[in-house]
Every structure is written in C-alpha cells, then in structure tokens.
Design a protein that fits this description.
The structure holds two protein chains of two kinds. Helices cover 77% and strands 0% of the residues of chain A. Chain A is an all-alpha fold. Chain A has a single domain, classed as MetI-like fold. The two termini of chain A are 45 Å apart. Chain B is built from twelve helices and two strands; from the N terminus they run αββααααααααααα. In chain B, a hairpin with a 6-residue loop joins strand 1 and strand 2. Classes of the chains: A mainly alpha, B mainly alpha.
Chain lengths: 268, 284
C-alpha cells in the first residue's frame, strides 16, 4: 500500500512537470526549426537559422531599447524609493502622513493599469512626449515605485538598530546615517529590489504598446507581439525572440529566488 | 523637531511621483468622464452623466463586465485550488525536490507576451502542438482560440499555466511555516490525513489563502495582454474584457469621455477587493 501511494505521488509529480514544461519545450523546438519542419512534433533536424535571422533583422536594437528603458525606470524608482523607505521606516513622522501614504501605495497596487493610462496619455500627448522612452519610464513608476518602497521598507526594518543608535550618539544626522550606515547594510536588498524593477519593466506590455509608436523605439515584447499577429509566417523567429528575451529573467531568478515569495506578494 | 523636516524632505519626491502617476490619473478619469471628449474630432464639452448612460446602453460594455467577472472568478478559484494541491503534494517526502521546485516556478519567469506567443504555438488550429496530439490520438482538433465557446476557457488555461506557480510558491512557504509538532501531536492522537488537513493545515494556511485569493482576483480582473494578443476580444466579443474595452474606446476610437467613464466604473468594481487588500496588508 505504501509503495502504491508513493507510485501515485510520483505519477502526479510527473504530470505536473509535463504540463509545466510542455509549452517551453515546444517553443524551444519551434525556435530551432525552419520552414515546414515547424509542423513536425518530433524531428531530429535542428538549425539556429531563426536566431541568425533575428539578429540579422536588427533584434539587438529592440533588446537595447528594453535594457535602456529598464535601467531608467529602475534608476528613477531607486532614487525616489531609497530615501522614502528610509523616512517611512526609521524617521519620526506625522502618523497621519505615514498611514495615508502607505494606504495609497497599497491602493495603487490594486488599480487596473489601463485606468491610469488614459489621463496620462492625454497629458503626455499634450506635452508631446508620446513615443519617448523616458516618458514610458515615468509611467512605469506606477508599478515599480510602490513596489520598491515596500520592499526597501522591509529591508530597512531588518537592519540592526544598535549601529544606528551608536552613530546617533556620535552626533550623526539622519542623512549621514542613511548614506553611510544603512545603505551599505541593506545593499543586497537594494540590489534585489532593483532586479525586480528591471524585470517588471523588461516584461511590461500594456503601457509600452500605448506609449511607444515608432519601430525604432520598440521594446522586445512589442516586437514579439508583432510576430504573434503575423500568422505563422515568422513563428520560428517569434519563438527565438521569446527565448532570447527571457534569458535575463531566467539568469536573475537564480539570484533572487530566496526573495521570490516576498517579491511576488508585492509585485504586479 | 529638525528631524521631522528631514523625514518630510526625504519622502516628498516619492509623494510627488505618486501624485503624478496615480492621484492625477484618478482625478483625470473622474473629470473626463463628465465630458464628451474626443481627441481626434477635438470635441470637448460638458455632458454630465451622459457618458455613463451611453456606456450602459452599449451591450459590448455589459458583455465585457460579464466576461471579466467570469474570467476573474474561474481563474482565481482554479489557480488557488491547483496551487494549494501542488503545494501539499510537493510538501510530501519526494526525491529531487531541490530540482522540482525551480522547474515548477518556470512558467512565471516568462513575460506575458512570451507566454502568449508560446500558447499561440500550442493552441493554433492547424499547427499547434495540442491539436497535433489530438489528431495523433484520433480525436477531432479543436478551434481553441477561434470558437465562441472555447476562447475564454483557453485564456483561463493560459493564465492558469502562468500563475499557478506563484500560488504554489506562496502556499508552499505557508506549509513550511507550520510547526512540525502540530503534525506529530495529530499523529499521536490517531487523526487521519484528511482530518489533519482540515483541522491543522487549512487553518494555519488561512492568511496565505487570503493573500492568494486577493492577489489573483486583483490581477485577473485587469486581464488585457492575453486577449489583446491572442483573440483581440473575439470571436463575437466572447473574450472582450473591461480593460480591452477601455483600450479600444479610448485609444483606438479616441473617445476619452466614454473610456474614462468605463475606467471609473472599473475602479468602483474592484474597490471592495482593494479595501480588503489594504486592510490585510496594513495589519500584517
């Protein structure tokens, strides 16, 4: 009976693993096929033509746009969130302000992004900053800023009080304590938070498709999206582009895995 | 006293950004919804609640609300149930767990656009893997994304593939936090595995269950990318969602007034869940 139970258990795990891996296997498979071979379920001929063609058509430009956008988004978030989270978690402040600010950041997490973008689009078009990557980075603060503030607050709260108190006795001001003592202590947390905001921006689609218009500003998700609608003509390249653009995510995950649960609770 | 000013000074830039990216849009939505405002024709005149009346006369808007609620409820329930089941399963003594868990989390490592492209390859009528397998088994291939009856269901499958891993991960963290002694005590008392699950596991998992339900209903309610990329809201509006409706009305037909009214309604629909989420997070 024990053996039978264990057998069932492993069958179940096998089914779940197959279900999880099937679309990934199939996408890699399609990315390694050209022409009609795409239709074969099992075939032994592989080629990396799709990857060559992708870069021949200038996919690197869209990757660079994506990196540029993710970096600006993250830089803005970090510059704003590092002091804000310090202030919220460590400094004396009117309770009303602290509470209403935190409630608002939580509320913003629940707002559907499409709702916020209509008025932002109207304003951006009046300011003539549609189709501008920096403007998109500002719109992305909707996602990344509240997230970064909450993440960093939990890291600040985890920092030992003694070091701070010792510095305070030595007469160090709030700014010195933040810059010289706390930021070095929570640096690993800052890096994790920055990685999560990079990834959010890296993968974002809705605001990108609304705010970016010319091909030269396209991010990787926008290019892949344009392949999806091209009905089979470029599926090999679409699969290859999907694989390439997912690599940073897969690499970073190894690094941030410990923080995944924390991150996903606060993430979009 | 001085320190009070510093705390304000440090948080002010973040407040300004939040005002710009979230407070201004909410006020904007409320304001524009009271106007008949079209960017292309340049029309801009006060129309009171007229846009709201127009909206509720539009059958497509009502269908989009219905689809969104159906999708949100079904996807949330399915993903929560599967996530919990898988977490309980993996929590057993299994060899190779260290390798299994990262694999189970993989689907969530891909962006929604990549996930959509993957499932386009899986579900395409002529060339998709699923239909190929069904033909191989002698079954009728199904029009997964192009039939009125199946399209929304297919979107649920795709969303479930992508998000069950996170539900699993949260539940798994919850299971790990339950002290072993509780189970030992149950074993001593001779409780059955089912009884143990109902009286120990489930009550201990309650905060995690609440979190998963809240997060998944918030995220499924805003469904946009998958339907935009895979069905365009069709066939026959069977996958039209509120987000997609607002997108088309505001940014394809440039009817900002109507899109804002729809946005405001969407916000009020999610409000109850927002309040639950905020209360839960502030208490934690």
């Amino acid at each position: 009976m024990r053996i039978f139970e264990r057998f069932l258990l492993y069958i179940a795990v096998g089914v779940i693993l197959t279900w999880t891996l099937m679309p990934i296997y199939w996408t890699i498979n399609v990315s390694l096929k050209t022409g009609l071979e795409v239709y074969e379920v099992f075939s032994t001929r592989f080629s990396i033509d799709n990857y060559f063609r992708l870069f021949g058509e200038g996919f690197q430009r869209y990757l660079l746009n994506t990196i540029y956008l993710a970096s600006i988004t993250t830089a803005i978030s970090m510059i704003l969130a590092i002091p804000a989270a310090y202030s919220l978690s460590k400094l004396p402040m009117s309770d009303k302000l602290r509470r209403s600010f935190l409630v608002w950041t939580l509320f913003s997490r629940t707002m559907p992004p499409i709702v916020l973008i209509i008025p932002l689009y109207v304003m951006f078009s009046q300011l003539r900053i549609i189709d501008n990557l920096v403007a998109v980075a500002i719109a992305y603060q909707v996602y990344t800023l509240p997230f970064a503030i909450w993440m960093l607050m939990s890291f600040y709260k985890g920092a030992p009080r003694e070091v701070e108190e010792a510095a305070m006795i030595d007469g160090a001001g709030a700014l010195t304590i933040m810059a010289r003592i706390l930021i070095p202590i929570i640096m690993p947390g800052i890096i994790v938070t920055a990685i999560f905001s990079m990834l959010m921006s890296w993968n974002e689609f809705l605001y990108a498709v609304i705010l970016l218009q010319s091909l030269k500003n396209y991010t990787a998700p926008l290019i892949i999206a344009s392949y999806i609608s091209e009905w089979g003509v470029k599926w090999g390249e679409m699969a290859a582009a999907g694989i390439i653009s997912s690599l940073p995510m897969l690499l970073f995950t190894a690094y941030v895995q410990k923080y995944m649960v924390l991150g996903f609770m606060k993430r979009e | 006293m001085r320190v009070g000013y510093i705390s304000l000074f440090l948080i002010l830039p973040a407040i300004a950004m939040m005002l710009f990216t979230t407070v201004y849009p909410i006020i904007g939505v409320l304001y524009y919804s009271l106007y008949s405002y079209n960017i292309i024709t340049g029309e801009f005149r006060f129309s009171g609640v007229n846009e709201y009346i127009e909206l509720f006369k539009d059958p497509v808007f009502l269908i989009s609300i219905r689809n969104t609620i159906i999708f949100s409820v079904v996807a949330t329930v399915v993903q929560t149930f599967l996530g919990l089941s898988i977490a309980v399963l993996i929590n057993q003594r299994i060899r190779g767990k260290r390798y299994i868990i990262p694999i189970l989390v993989l689907p969530n490592m891909f962006s929604v656009v990549v996930v959509s492209s993957m499932w386009k390859l899986m579900l395409d009528y002529d060339t998709g893997l699923i239909n190929n397998i069904m033909r191989f088994l002698g079954l009728q291939p199904l029009p997964w994304l192009t039939s009125v009856d199946l399209a929304l269901f297919s979107i649920v499958i795709i969303d479930t593939w992508q998000w069950t891993p996170i539900c699993f991960l949260i539940f798994y963290a919850g299971l790990q936090s339950i002290p072993r002694e509780l189970y030992d005590a149950a074993l001593v008392d001779g409780a059955s595995p089912f009884r143990t699950f109902i009286s120990i596991t489930l009550p201990m998992l309650k905060p995690y269950l609440a979190l998963v339900l809240l997060l998944r209903s918030i995220d499924t309610f805003r469904l946009f990318d998958k339907v935009y990329l895979l069905t365009g809201g069709g066939p026959a509006n069977s996958t039209e969602t509120i987000s997609l409706y607002i997108f088309k009305t505001g940014l394809v037909f440039w009817d900002i007034g109507k899109a804002s009214a729809a946005s405001f309604i969407m916000l009020t629909l999610i409000l109850a869940i927002s309040i639950l989420y905020i209360r839960r997070s502030i208490l934690a």
